[in-house]
Amino acid sequence: MPKHGTEGNSESGKGNGKGEGGKEGKELYVCGLDAAVDVVGGKWKPMILWALYAGRTLRFGELRRHITGISEKVLIQQLRELESDGIVHREVYREVPPKVEYSLTALGLSLNEALIPLGVWGDEHMEQLVANRECKKEGTAA
Fold it and tell me: Torsion angle of alpha carbons 106, 11, 48, 105, nearest 10°?
């Protein structure tokens, strides 16, 4: 779905809603689905949201342990993007050693609620999806 104003937005390099030279551009999204996919797009953001479900508050290390396979660098990057989108709240405690906790904002909680049916769909169709991928690798029909 094409963007207006900031062409070529990607998960790691979101635009600021302004056109060339910092001048106000047109709308960043063409529809609600475009906006939602931009916020949760990618492999890790839905996993971060799921780890923070139901009002859970987790420290960085706890969050990383909940998401198998994510690197520290990528987790930091994804958390920063979710925080800038208003989905995740980052609380820094001024103590030694520093303590940082992450939780979902009200916007993040509502986004998680919207993702639940998608997770249910994935659970219901997971076996078929895996079989389709295996058939594609083998060059046969499912």
Answer: -10
